[in-house]
Fold this protein.
Amino acid sequence: MQESFSSMIGSPLSRINLPGARRTLAAVAQFCGHLDMQKNLQTCVALIGSAAQRGAKMVFLPEASDFIPERRDQSAQQAQPLDGPFMKEIQQAAKDNSIWVSIGVHEQHTISGHPFNTNAVVSDEGVLTQVYRKLHMFDVNVKDGPRMSESQTTTRGDQITDPVDTPVGKLGLAICYDMRFPELAQQLRHRQAQVLCYPSAFTEPTGAAHWEVLLRARAIETQTYVIAAAHIGKHNSKRSSYGDAMIVDPWGSVVARCPRNSTEPAIAVGEINLEFLDKCRSDIPVFTHKRPDIFHEFAS
Ligand SMILES: O=C(O)CNC(=O)[C@H](CS)NC(=O)CCC(=O)C(=O)O
C-alpha cells in the first residue's frame, strides 16, 4: 500500500510561488452528502468552481465527500483507490479551476477490506500532493446521543503526515474526530504547520455541544488557522450532520462561516494572513515557553 501510494504523489512544490503570498483567500465548503457518488461529485465540482470564482487559492471539502454510507457494508463496496475515477475528476476540477483542494474520501484498502478515512490534498495542477489517513476512530456510545463504531468499517491510519506547502501556508492534515486530540494539533504545529484542516461530518448533538469550542481551542493553543469543512443536514433516515463549516484565525476568531439555516451546498471565504499569524505568535510566544524538560514529547 505504502509504495503504490508514494508513487502517486507528485512533487509540484517547487513551482509554487509562496514567498510573496502572505495574504491569500481560502474557501471552506459545506454540503449534505448522500450515498450517490456521482451526485456528490457534481456538488464537489460545483463548489470547487465557485471557490475559484470568489478568488480562493484553496478550497476545503468535508470528510467523506465521496459518499455517506447508509449501511455498514457500503463503505467497503463503494470505496475507490486514490487513483480511481472519483479522485481523477476532483483532480481535473482542481486543474480546470487552478485551485488547490483538500478533500475527505473513503480510500479503498484491499488488504483489510475496510477503507481508510483519508484527507487528500490536490494541487492547482491537479496533482495529488499529500495524504493523511485518520488516526482516531470514532467509536462512541453516548446516551441519547450518537452511537458509532467507525473501526468496524474503517482501517485506521498509523502516521502523522508532515505539513505540506500550499498557497495558504504550511498545511497540517487531520480529520473530524481528530480535533478532540490536541496532541495531533501540537505535533503538526511542532512540524511547522500554519494552517490545520479538519474535514468533518460531526454528529448533531456533539456538534451543538463541542464543535466551535474545539476548533477555536485548537486554533488558539497552536496559534494556527483552523479550517473545518463539514457535512450538514439529513443524509439518510438514520444519519444527519451538524454543519457549521468555518475558518478560525490564530487568535481564535471565526473569520468565515457557512450558514446553519440551509442545507444547500455553500462556501465561505476567509483571509489567511500569515503576517497576522506571526504577530499572534510573537505577541504571546507560547511555543518558546514550552517545557520539554517536563513534557518530554516536544523535546527535539
Ligand atoms: O463514516 C463515514 O463514512 C465518514 N466518517 C464519519 O462520519 C466520522 C466517523 S463515523 N465521523 C466522526 O468522526 C464524527 C465525530 C464527532 O461527531 C465527534 O467527535 O463528536
In short: Residues 233 and 263 are 6 Å apart (CA to CA). DSSP finds seven helices and 16 strands in the chain.
